[in-house]
Each structure stands twice: as C-alpha cells, then as structure tokens.
Design goal:
The structure is a homodimer.
Chain A: H1 8-16, H2 21-29, H3 32-46, H4 62-83, H5 92-98, H6 104-108, H7 116-129, H8 132-143, E1 149-152, E2 168-172, E3 177-181, E4 189-190, E5 201-210, E6 213-223, E7 236-240, E8 253-257, E9 260-263, E10 273-274, E11 280-281, H9 290-321, H10 340-375, H11 382-410, H12 422-434, H13 439-458, H14 484-511, H15 516-522, H16 524-551, H17 556-576, H18 578-584, H19 589-606, H20 610-615, H21 621-624, H22 635-643, H23 656-665
Parallel strand pairs in A: 1-5, 2-5
Antiparallel strand pairs in A: 2-3, 3-9, 4-8, 5-6, 7-8, 10-11
Chain lengths: ~675, ~675
C-alpha cells in the first residue's frame, strides 16, 4: 500500500468515513488478536519469492496454467508449514474455523489449486469415513504430503443421484480383495480436483457388491499412480477433463477402472464394514455422514461471502475513482458512485456480504453443537441443521454470485478485463451454485421438509423444527408494520402463504387424477419459490439477531452504519418481493411508496461510508489482485501496466503478419 | 449429422414432435429459398480445410489464440469471397439483413474475430461519415482488404460520455495537417477490436481544435502501422489490452498518439468539414449520425437472440438425453427435461429467442423506413426509433444473457466445461449488456423520454410517440382480463403507473429542496424500473403482433405451438411482475393462482415439442460446437473425446511431477 500516490478521490472518501474502519475489521475477524494473526501470516507468506507471477496466469496455455499452479501450490504448502506451525496442534475443523477470514490462497492460485481436494475433501473423507486405524494411517500420510489424494464421487453420467452411481467394488472372498470396475463410459469418475495429473491416491465412492448382492455406496481408498514414477497403475484410466469457466488450475480429472484389485482394508470402514469372509456389517447410524455434508456447506457460505466482499471492494473503490458523464450542466464529471443507480447496485452487495458473514458463523456454531450431540447419539436436531445448511448454501451461492456479476457490470467495460479479477471471481463463485448439492435439487429438499412440517401441523403435531414454527401461526394478519421486526414477520407470512398455496395446488392436481409424484412435480415451480421464501427468512432473522446482539458492544458510529446496512438489506428485499408481500400481508400501495423512499434515503446515508466499509474487509492488494480495486486507486495506470505484461506486447509486430496477414492483403494467401 | 448412432431419447423426442420442423426453420429464415441459400453457404464454407481446430482454442495460450484466430479469420474471409460472390452486388446493409440467420463465424472463431471491427464498425464509419470521395476511396480499400481498419472511440478514462473524450486533433493551418495527440494516460484509446496487432488503419474520434477553439468530436482516418513492415508509425503507441471474459481472439487494443500528423483530407467530412484555411463548416444535420447507432443496436438484438437460441439448443437436447434421479419410486431415472423445474428454466428461453427474433426484424424494417425519411430530410420519427432501439437493446441483451446463464446452470456441472460452449456463449453475450450504450445509461435515456412525454401529455400535447400513447390513457382501470390482449393492456397500466410514481417522487424531492438534477438522481432507481416496464410492453406487443400476423399463413400444428410459446411468454412475465400488476391493475390473489396453474399447464403442452423447437433453429454441429448439444445426443462420448484432445492428456505423467511434486512429497522442494 506504500509507494505511489493514492488517488485523490479515494483520499477524500477515506477522510469522510465516519466510523473506525479498524474496529469493523476486528469485528469481522472475531477480535483484535485474530486480525493481528491473519495479517502477520499474510505478511510472511506474501513476501516469499516465486508466489507471484511475472506474467499473469491468464496469458498461459492450459497446460502451463496447471504447471505453474502446481508449482505455486507446493511453495505455498511449504510456506504454510513454516509460518503456520501452530495449525498442527489443532484439529482439522478448528483450523478451518480459524481461517474463515483467510483468503491467502486467492493471492497465489486465483483460479484455485490442484491440491484443493487433497486439503479438503480427501482429508475429510479419511477423518469421517475411516475407522480409527485407517484415520491414523492415512491422515498422517496425507498431512505430511507423502501421498496426494482426491475424492471421487460424481461420474460422467451421475451427479445428484448418489444411488445411481455405476462404479463397482466387488468383493472377492477368495483373495480378500475388492475389484473396482467401471462398466460403462458414464461410470467414469468425472470432476475430482487434482485427479488429472496430481493425485496418486483417491477415495472412490462405489457400489459395493458381495456375492452378487448390492450393499449400496461405500468409500474405498484406491492408489491410482505409482509412488515412484507417477505412472497410472495397470487398469487405471486417468486424465484431465479440459478447460472450464473457472478452476482452470485445479486439474479436474476423470478416472475409470478396468478390474483393479485393492486389499480389503482399503475400504474405509468407520460406518459399514466388510469382514474377511464377506460378511457385511451395516453402519450403526447412517446419519453420521450428514455431518460432513453440513460442514462443507457452511464452508461454501463463508467462501461465497468472501468472494462477494472482494468483488464489492473492487467495484466500490473503482466507482469512487471513475468519473463519468454529468449530473449537472457545466459541473465536472462526477464519481460514478454518486449515481443512485450505482449505489443501488453496490451497497446491497456490502449488506449481503455481511449477512452471509454472520450467517456462516452462526451456522458453524450450530453445526459444532449438533456434532457434539451426534457423538453422544442424539440426532433430533440433525434434520433442522440439514435443512438450514441446504437453505443457506442455496441462497448464499445464488445471491453472492448474482451480486458479483452486478459488481462486474457496474465497472463497465473494464470489469470485463481479466485484470480486474471480476471475471475470475464470477467463475469460482458460480460453481458454488452447482456443486455440493445443485441449488434446485436442494430447494426441492427444503420444500419436501416444509410440506412435511405443514402436514404435521395440520395433524396437530406441535414439536416442529424451530425455524418452521411460523408455519403454524394462526393469528389473524396484522396491519402492515414497517419496523424490521414487522418486515421479518411479514416475510414469514409470505413463506407460509407460499407453502399453503403449493400444498393446495398439489391437492388440486391429485384430485384431477395425477399421481402424488406427478402432482408434486407439476407444482414444483411453486415449491421452489416457497423454499426460497423460507430460506430468506433465515438470513433475515440471523443477520438481524447477530447485528443487534453485537451493536451494544460497538462504538456508536460503527453500530449505526451496521444497522443502516441491516435496514438496507430489509428494505431492498421488501421491495424485491413486493408481489409476495402484497399477496400475503396487508402491505398497501402507499406502503410500497414509503418503502421506496426509505430505500432512497438509506442509500444516501450509507454512501459516504462506502469506501470505509470495503476497506474494512481488509483485503491486501495481492489478494484482490485487481487493476480496478487496489488500495491506492491507480486503476488506469495499473490497467496499462498489466496490459504491457502481455507476451503479445513484447514484439511490435506479431509473426502472423508475415505469415498470414501480409499475403492475405496482397491477395496471395 | 450422419455416422454414429443417434441417442434413443432424442429419436423418441423427434418422433413425438407434432409440427413440421422444416416449416419453422423456413419461417425463421424468411422463406424456403433463404434456408436453402444459408445451408448451401454453410456446407461450402464448413468443408474447407483448416477452419476447424484440432486442438480446441481453449487449450492455447493467449498469444496462440490470437495467431490461430487471425489465421482462421483470413481463411474465412477468403472462403466468403469465393462462395458468397453475390454479396459484392448488394449494399452493406442489405448483406447484413440477408445474413441475420447466419452464424457461420461462430463455427470458425467462437470467441469472435480480430477482423470484427474491420468488417463492421470501420466500414460503417467510412460509409456514414466519409464524403463521397472518401467513401469511394476508403471503402474500396477496406472491402478488398488492402488495408485493415478498426474504429477507436472509447478511451481508458472515457466511455459513455462522448463529450468527455480527451484525444486531440489540432488543425495546423500552416501545413494543412491535423496533429493527433493523447495528452494523458486516460486519453489512450482502449478496446478497439483488432487494434492490438492487426489493423494498420483506424477511424479515430477526437476533439477537433482549430486556432485554439474546440469544435467537438470528429472522425479521422489515421494510418497507424506501416503497410509494408506493419511497424507502428512514429508517435503511435499501440498494443493489446490483455485477456478478457470473452472476445479473446479479437485482439482488442490501445492506441496513443504523440503529436502524429495527418493530412487535412483524412478527416471524414460527410457531416462537418474543415477547409484549408481552417474554416469550420458545421454539419447540416447532426441527427444523421443516429442512423448508424440504431443500426448497430438492431444487430445486437439479432445477435442476442441467436446466442440464446444456441444455448437453448444445447440445454434442451442435453436435458432430453440426461437422466437423473427419480420422479417415482422404482421407476428408471427420468430425462431431466421431465422435471417441471427444468421446463421452467428452458421453455421460456425458446419463447424469448422467438420474441427477439421477430422484434429485431420488425425494428430493422422500421429503421429502413425511417432511414429513407431521413434522406428526404424528415426527422419526425427519429426520436421514437431511437428510444425503441435503446429499449430493445437493453432488454434483449439483459434477457438473453440471463437465460443463457440459466441454460448453462440447467446443464449442471457439464455446463461449466468449455467444451459445452455455454461459458463462451455467456462471455460474448454478456458483453452486449455493456457495449454500444451501457444498459443503465440507456434506460435513463428512455426514462428521460418517458418523463418528457408525460409532461407534454399533462400540458395537453396530443402528438406523442406512438409507443408512448398509453401514457395518456385516462379510462378507468378495467377488471382483470387474462387474455393476451388484456395482459398487454395491464402491462401498459404498470408502465404508466411507474412513470407516474417516478414523477411524483421527483416532485416530492424537489419540494423538499433538492435541485432538479438531484431529485432526478434520487428517483433514478424508480426511473429505470419505469423504463424497463416500457421496454417490456414493446417486446410483448411486437412479439404478439408478429406471431398473430403470421399464424394464418402457417400449418395449424405450427401455428398452435408458436401461439403456445407466445402465451407462455405472457404468463411467465405476468408471474414475474405480480407485484407491479397487483399495484397497478385489478389483479387479485385468485387471478395469480389461476395464472400459475395456466403456466404449469402450458409448460406441459409445450414439453413434447421442445426438441423439435430447438432443432428448428437449425444450427449445424460445427456452429453449436458443443459436446452437450450435438444433433446426435452423444454427449458423454463427446465429453470424453474432447477431454482426450487436451495436450495435458498426451503424456501419462506431466513434467511437473519430477520437477516439483516428487521433491515436495519427499520433503526436498
């Protein structure tokens, strides 16, 4: 942040910010000590040579991107071993939580790393699915990087529907081995990160067969490459799946088996077991596996809000230095952030990032608590946790991705340049909509639970999940109340109204002769809308509760701006959902107009703090990696500096001129 | 389309299609003869060797992408000279219109071509801004490719606001030359396609100065590279601007001048002139330039609907062959297109592509008519045409881009692969939201016109633009009418209500003491929403009129399915805009439920024709260039075939293993 002069407009913005930026940073970090620890780690790691590119990744070929990405990943892993030694003393999950605000990897492998799956899914699979002996053995090897692993579940022809997986693991009692086999092309594993050319081990999910009988999907630890030569083992067909919208340094791969044999003890046997003689011992409680799924979804929510915070930082700073057009005749060109339409695009992005920031932490705590219950054999809160995690994964991925794209578009043409980092942020963020439970599929699961609860309430059950209690509210519709609590209650009426309408439609379709499944399917557009409305209540209420709980501990200026952002979020969504509120509450036309004016007022209130608010996210320039968003606001200079790094710009005349263009222009091609 | 076996599910879909696919193709092509002509051209061009890549572009480095893209572009230009000889006998604009359905370039340079700006903007600039002598001289050179040109308007610091451009062209009476100069870094031209290393000439928009006085923005023909060596001329700083979200084979560049001198006759003088002695002669009518702007926007609308048609073809065919999950217990996995949520995502995309297909043609005809009037000196219809083109550019770019992304997401993980072609379609389509008038900026122009008309009506003026007559409707609100005509009238009430509410807000803000400009700005979120509502009326009415006009000339099954798609479009948008309709019409809660059920019924009606409808777009596999969307439905086989083209997959072990990974795993990196 030192060196060159900071843009005047940014200096002015920072001067007029009326709260303590550092206080907000500390709040986001969960305390001063954590801010300090994060910054020290960033400083140490980012001063290591070789972690930054001379030629930006985007100029490289697909193959070079992988090679360079792997090189930097390994340097980074080494650096973390040096500078984050304490992490070895903490549990895997403690480390995850402690690093919720860490975006260091983004400074090194913007398009994510070929070891991503090793560091996350492979480790979790060992910890959650291995028995004690297996955990001990494999997690040591994995932690020390003696082996590099990945996790293979999805197949070319199978994603959402786990039961549909085709890969077979057939137990051979004679040799006490499992025979792994891919019977068709659609059975090939497809997508695992690092699978292409990086991993030599892999946890493979496959259909277990013993003596001709199917025992469902089980996890197997499979060696796929020779530890010495890295050559694929006999019968293993492995490679990469090609370029993608993002994740191009991740080395996503495919994997097929031609009757590959592995010893019996390579089945991960924490849950189910296969004895030597082929006896199958079922899992004592299959629900244990849900824990890991919830965990991954909380991590997604946290990532989503960090991606959005980066995009917002870029767009807000750029909007403060970009001057364009005229608001008033003969006045100088205004900062584009002074256009209310621009504030409309950007300020909600700050609120939204806060909303999911606090939601992710709240959900993590709930997950930790529920996990402890699970270990004690208590499962009653698991369904609620599962539905909460589904709902928040869907909404955070969808909202944050949409707002990242809004941020990019708000930067006009320059946002389209890779050097802005906005396209790559969109690429990694939009993937969260699809992976770890495709959003539409998850919404249908949430809807299933809502309809089930609705039925239970009709049947007089009183113990429903806390987050669905509102479905049983039988009090008459109150008059419109524009307080935040009033708006929250109104959104509950909306969700209830939508569940009720969906159920009516299903009933009506059944009466017309459709089967229960066809009636459900025909009403599913409504069901998804009901599930979304339910999910919206959760963010609204958690965001509100978390801010209000903290407000009294904060200095007054900071509390004020955080409450303004909360209010903005409420009004924004009330205006977005006017149709629902008009249908299911007593909102009137006049109320809508009042909300609109309140929205216009609150934009104006937050506007002077916009740059301070994004500064408080405290992303170092190396992490933002953006020509438009750097702390000093030298956007135009950086755009030119980055362009000059292009290998095409190293020569005044490209070879294609003599080769193709000149002959063509002379009519001689 | 021959050779390998076609997927069974697709065969079934085609068998159950109940209209004549060829009849629809002919309709979209404007007649049997045009279908024939298009197919012959496609067949001729696509059989030329060297136009298809052995290694897909996505694997190449940025530099290689350019070199390969240029090579193919030149081959393509040569091929067109051979196989489209008649085009020489037609006007530039006749050729554009005749090729509205041509997507051949997409088969060759998916990410568009470095000659894009030469073929479009450079030619138009010469034709629209050169005087007769200049047109004769330069257009001959450009048509024969003796020179390669581009068009430079946007600068690093200036886009939307043309008057803010900084590049200077100062007339030197002594030498009868213009001196071109870039006084700052923000004055550098930035973005022109082909500017980087391809073009040797360029039309530059610059501030004209004569004897210290500024005469506004004028066009200059500037040579930037030596015709023999291609070296940048002295004082010319030129290069490329680096990788982007899309358009990576376009060679977008920057251009700066250090006092570069050009002869006086290099100013394009159709409109304004500078005489030898420095006398400035103003343009007889500056409005003439609007024609070209309208033309470009109509072309964008047509491109948007073609991009969407491609994405829809891919997603619908893939959804017909992809089987996943279970709708009913113990039943086989259904085609995912049988999920109503999937139909909800995809069928509106077919309707929308049709809507803009017909709108683009309608607007072209209006443009042609208005252009004839302009040449006769009649300008009265120009403002209306301008606002129509703005409105439709905004809505088509926004709607089609959003739906392309919906199509991509509807294909799950595989849609994220470049080999699906969906990411690249998004990349090129989303650019249309920003270029040629950024959408928010254009909406504010539309709003300006709406508010002006509103004021005129209040003042008793009766001759308002035909598309805004509804603003003066003083009849009482009728009861809800769910016919298409009724819905259209309701949408007019919505737009009128929104204009009225915006104007009230502006008045209210003015009364509270804000300046007119600040009041306008503060209400601008509402103004944009009003402008969007106005634009929606136009698509709704044009789509309806164009389908109904044609329906009687079509066979009954085709007319039926086209009317179903039209109805789908109406119901979809009524449901999307429930809030507006509840506010501004007599729509009731029951009416909303009826619309919802009608929507669910119409999805079911269209479903069996979905594949037939996308087949009728008649994209050859080379144009679609998609593993997921090919005519034969061999999606999984193609995914694997494409992945195996990866240079990374040519070696079982990548060099990075010995270089980095092995030492790292042994603790020796």
């Amino acid at each position: 942040m030192a060196g060159k002069k900071v843009n005047e407009d940014l200096l002015n913005e920072r001067a007029k910010c009326n709260f303590d930026v550092e206080e907000l940073t500390n709040l986001l970090d969960d305390g001063v000590e954590h801010t300090k620890r994060r910054r020290t780690l960033e400083q140490n790691i980012l001063s290591i040579e070789g972690l930054q590119d001379d030629i930006p990744e985007e100029y490289l070929s697909h193959k070079e991107k992988y090679e360079n990405g792997l090189r930097k990943t390994l340097l980074m892993c080494k650096a973390l071993q040096t500078y984050d030694k304490e992490s070895a003393g903490r549990s895997f999950q403690e480390n995850i939580r402690l690093n919720f605000r860490n975006s260091l990897w983004s400074a090194v492998t913007k398009d994510t790393s070929p070891l991503l799956l090793h560091l996350e899914m492979f480790m979790i699979a060992i910890l959650e699915q291995g028995n004690e002996e297996q955990r001990e053995y494999w997690s040591k090897k994995a932690t020390n990087f003696e082996i590099i692993g990945t996790y293979a579940q999805t197949e070319l022809g199978h994603g959402t529907f786990i039961r549909g997986l085709e890969t077979q693991a057939t137990y051979d009692v004679g040799t006490e081995e499992f025979v792994l086999h891919s019977p068709t092309i659609t059975a090939y594993k497809w997508w695992p990160g690092g699978m292409g050319h990086t991993a030599n081990y892999c946890v493979v999910m496959a259909q277990l067969y013993i003596k001709g009988k199917n025992y469902g999907i089980q996890p197997f630890m499979v060696q796929i490459r020779d530890e010495e030569t890295h050559m694929p083992l006999p019968g293993v067909k492995v490679g990469e799946i090609g370029p993608k919208l993002g994740f191009n340094t991740v080395n996503n791969g495919f994997l097929g088996f031609d009757n590959v044999r592995i010893p019996r003890d390579r089945m991960l046997m924490k849950n189910a077991q296969v004895l030597k003689d082929g006896t199958y011992k079922a899992s004592p409680n299959s629900k244990l596996a849900y824990g890991a799924m919830v965990y991954v979804r909380v991590v997604i929510i946290n990532s989503a809000c960090k991606y959005l915070a980066r995009a917002t930082t870029i767009a807000v700073r750029y909007s403060a230095i970009r001057r364009q057009s005229q608001l008033k005749p003969n006045a100088p060109e205004p900062q584009i952030i002074d256009y209310v339409t621009q504030q409309h695009k950007l300020l909600i992005a700050i609120s939204t990032s806060h909303a999911y920031h606090f939601t992710a932490r709240w959900l993590w705590d709930l997950y930790t608590k529920t996990n402890q219950e699970l270990r004690r054999g208590e499962f009653k809160n698991l369904p609620e946790l599962h539905i909460l995690a589904c709902s928040m994964k869907v909404l955070s991925s969808a909202d944050c991705t949409a707002l990242i794209e809004k941020c990019r578009l708000a930067c006009g043409g320059h946002g389209y340049l890779m050097s802005s980092s906005l396209p790559i942020l969109y690429g990694v963020s939009t993937a969260t909509v699809t992976y770890e439970g495709e959003n539409t599929v998850l919404l249908l699961q949430v809807a299933r639970s809502l309809v089930k609860t609705w039925d239970q309430i009709l049947k007089g059950h009183i113990s429903v999940s806390p987050s669905m209690v509102y479905l049983g509210n039988r009090t008459p519709l109150p008059k419109w109340d524009s307080s935040l609590q009033g708006i929250l209650e109104s959104f509950k009426r909306v969700a209830k109204g939508k569940v009720s309408a969906s159920v009516s439609s299903i009933d009506q379709y059944r009466k017309s002769g459709l089967s229960p499944e066809d009636a459900w399917n025909k009403a599913s557009v409504q069901l998804i809308s009901a599930a979304e409305a339910h999910a919206r209540i959760i963010v609204l209420s958690v965001y509100k509760a978390e801010i209000e709980r903290r407000a009294s501990t904060l200095s007054s200026p900071l509390a004020t701006v955080l409450l303004e952002l909360l209010e903005l979020y409420y009004i924004y969504w009330a205006l977005e959902k006017t149709g629902d509120l008009l249908l299911y509450t007593k909102l009137s036309e006049k109320d809508v107009r009042d909300l609109q004016h309140r929205y216009e007022d609150i934009l104006e209130k937050i506007r002077p703090n916009a740059v301070g608010l994004v500064d408080a996210f405290d992303f170092r320039d190396e992490i933002l990696s953006s020509t438009l968003g750097a702390y000093d606001g030298r956007a135009y200079e950086r755009l030119m500096e980055e362009a000059l790094k292009s290998p095409l710009n190293k020569e005044p005349v490209n070879q294609s001129f003599e080769k193709y263009l000149k002959p063509f222009m002379r009519g001689k091609l």
